[in-house]
Input
Amino acid sequence: VIEDERVVGAVIAGDIVRARRGVVLACGGFEWDPDLCRAFLRGPIERPVSVSTNTGDGLRMAMRAGAALGNMREAWWYPTVDLPVDGELRPFQIMTHAGWPRCIMVNAQGKRFLNEATNYNASAAAFHVIDPDTMRLVNLPCWVIFDHDHFSRYGFGAVPGAEPVTPGDGGPEWMVSADDLRGLAEKLGIPTGALVSTVERWNSNVAGGRDPDFGRGEHAHDRWWGDPSFDRSTTASTLGPLETAPFHAARVRPGTIGTKGGPRTNAGAQVLDLGGEPIPGLFAAGNVMASCMGPGYGGAGGTLGPAIVFGYLAGRTAATAGQPVTAVAG
Ligand SMILES: Cc1cc2nc3c(=O)[nH]c(=O)nc-3n(C[C@H](O)[C@H](O)[C@H](O)COP(=O)(O)OP(=O)(O)OC[C@H]3O[C@@H](n4cnc5c(N)ncnc54)[C@H](O)[C@@H]3O)c2cc1C
Output
């Protein structure tokens, strides 16, 4: 509700609720609105894993109030696999899992294309590579490939490794299995020779303790997120050969835990107009706003942390009659 260029309240369940200090937009991103995603994001999202009510209402309200927008191309990207949960298939974030030993990702050409142990958000850069001739995404579709030792030891996402696996007919619907890599490639419709040579190269590099192709295991992050039962000062917590039949695959779909573009704010969480001035009475915090993290991800809590900080700043600024808390903002 805007009166005399000031946000003075909001319509909640049909009633106007007036605000003495201001209105804080804290209603999440726009990842569940396919049109907004198509209009703004730098890559596709097939599987948002946040609450489905995040449909961009806050973004629309901010735009109506004349807000300047920022970081609109970005989301907290997260590769997913559809897995059975409570009797139905649901998207499950798998990037951490894909970085454990005996597991790689390949594209439709049967080739690896990223460090599978990198952080989930950064992995999107590999998924968004475009072939300039065809304008198609080079690395989608994509499959995660793992051997039976991996599955027995770790399960997969929400699926315990003890679950019986029958390669071929009768296997679980989320997983494709075969007794050898050629059979697996045939079932996936990717070149058999390419998949076999990708795995052979991977296994030989693993035997040498290095991934010269994508540097998996070279960063402390890769090793830390690997299998904790290995020595994390070595690459063994993330590198491991694919050698034990049957071999398994699951389709990877691009997902997100939320978008992170929206109205720009100052360091007091006040929403800015197109001229860079605060819109009186309007604040934003969390995924609804233009994230201060830009395209990046700072590590565990890197999403919740800034949301909480800007929620705090919005409250403080509103309580101090609209003066941004510049000392806190640094
Ligand atoms: C599966 C999953 C795992 C995660 N794990 C981590 C983690 O380990 N660490 C971490 O830091 N972050 C994690 N995150 C990210 C973190 O949860 C989000 O960044 C954070 O919840 C964003 O907070 P928010 O308040 O901006 O939005 P949300 O928490 O998404 O809340 C927005 C709320 O607004 C409501 N809403 C939307 N429109 C309206 C409307 N018109 N009126 C009223 N209400 C509305 C929505 O229903 C929703 O409840 C994870 C996210 C997911 C999905």
In short: The chain has ten helices and 16 strands. The CA atoms of residues 55 and 130 lie 27 Å apart. Residues 26-28, 49-51, 53-54, 57, 257-258, 286-288, 301-304, 307 surround flavin-adenine dinucleotide (CB under 6 Å). The longest strand covers residues 247-259.
